[in-house]
Amino acid sequence: MTKGKKVTIYFCQSCGYESSKWMGQCPGCKEWNTFVEESVEKKAAGKVKNVVGGNKELKTSKISEIDMQDKERTQTGFQELDRVLGGGIVLGSLVLVGGDPGIGKSTLLLQVCRNLAESKEVLYISGEESLQQIKMRAQRIGTFSDNLQLFCETNLEQIEQVIERQKPQTVIIDSIQTIYSEEVGSAPGSVSQVRETTGRLLQIAKGMDITIFIVGHVTKEGVVAGPRVLEHMVDTVLYFEGDRHASYRILRGVKNRFGSTNEIGVFEMREKGLVEVENPSEYMLNGKPQGASGSVVACSMEGTRPILVEIQALVCHSNFGIPRRTAAGTDLTRVNLLMAVLEKRAGLSLATCDAYVNIAGGIRMNEPAIDLGIVMALASSFREKAINEKIICFGEVGLSGEVRAVNMAQQRVTEAKKLGFDTCILPKVSIPGLTDTKGIKIVGVENIREAIGKIG
Ligand code: TYD
Ligand code: MG
Predict the structure, then answer these.
(1) Which residues hold their Cβ within 5 A of ligand 2, which is an ion?
(2) Is 140 in the pocket of ligand 1 (CB under 6 A)?
């Protein structure tokens, strides 16, 4: 092969944006200080590597001719994970599991290995921990079958050899930022290394029909390439998130070629590893104060599942010219907009007030259906009147103060009923779509004035 020319390129470590010169802010993802110099070998033009298992003859196909050998799904032993994956693991897929360091990615995948190894060959490749460290973790989790093989290695060429020899059904790579290929000049964790190694793993997954899970750390500092650089290459992208100080963790699907996205799985980190949370709403509402103003329960759809959360607001008189507003767990711009709507359409003089809005439990929610909850919580705190704790509300709020329809109203009502709520405030226009309202009072509202009239 002709040796290519070495060139220096600056890569954004957060999103993979390429530039010939260093820049302070990335034009792609708007992050600051993420550009790092990498030397890349430009391949001679026209040399495209053959994909393992790719079509050798140049033959095109008609849809009707394609043979559908049923891509069966393997259950992971975690229903929460199966749902996020769209019903289980698809053979030959490449799954990226991203998240902050220490959030529990290795723990989750080791537990998945344990479940899979009961019937299948699994290979866990770690570039971060020694065999002894993995064993220590494994001992906390439980007993493991011998179908699970461990391998500590960071060299991609050796990893490829081992996979080809062992032919396991599932491979875990922990983490992609520690793996390097000899063919790329730059350091492990750089954008070019991470892209090359993922590309090669993709060929293995598709060529040998092996499912590969890749762990990718999210780092703020931009010293190693983030998982976003790889999102477009893999079949499924899952992010593991949660408050480091709280014990629960949320696994969120952001891309899935084999199912719907936006699904979430809820886990709790215990001493013996991760445990599934079967009823997240109950979990999120734990510790809700009784009779306090500025607190209301709202309902958000996360994928196909309704989740009830407590929205808290604290509104107080501001001592500064520009009032302070903060939002934790939701979008601040949205909160500011809703406060302006409350001021203009419901006559609450909030312009001189500080306001703090918080989604209790540390979960992030951005569905417009929680608008009504935010509005109710703000109004309740402003008037210092508590909202009855048996009330739940949902609905999108428009700029004229109108309460707009939301989808899947029935599922939300059913969830509220299941958790013992007796009144549901919702958009009037959503009422005709409801099919079962037995045992719960349905209050339809057209605008926010009507809604906040139900407080106290
Ligand atoms: P880990 O899976 O190593 O995180 P990541 O791979 O995402 O970097 O998670 C480590 C954290 O989980 C660590 O702070 C300890 C905690 N942990 C438990 O609380 N219980 C357990 O049984 C295990 C194995 C870990
Ligand atoms: Mg780890």
Answers:
(1) 106
(2) yes
Separation CA 238–CA 242 (nearest Å): 13
CA distance linking residue 387 with residue 295, whole number of Å = 7
d(CA 268, ligand 1 centre) in Å: 11
Residues in CB range of 279: below 8 A, 6 or more apart: none
Using CA atoms in the order 189, 175, 34, 40, what is the torsion angle rounded to 10 degrees?
Answer: 30
- Please spell the DSSP secondary structure of 363-388, one letter per residue: -----GGGHHHHHHHHHHHHHT-BPP
> What separation in Å is there between the alpha carbon of 60 and the centre of ligand 1?
48
Residue 225: name the closest of 255, 256, 172, 186 by CA: 186
Ligand 1 probe mutation, 100, 106, 107, most atoms within 8 A of CB: 107
CA distance 302 to 149: 36
* 3 state SS of 9: strand
Atom of ligand 1 nearest to the CA of 109: 2
* Whole-prediction pTM: 0.81
Q: What residue's CA is closest to ligand 1, atom 25?
A: 273
**Amino acid in the structure at residue 57:** E
Q: What is the pLDDT of residues 272-330, one digit of tens each?
A: 999 999 888 888 888 888 889 999 999 999 888 899 999 999 999 988 889 999 999 99
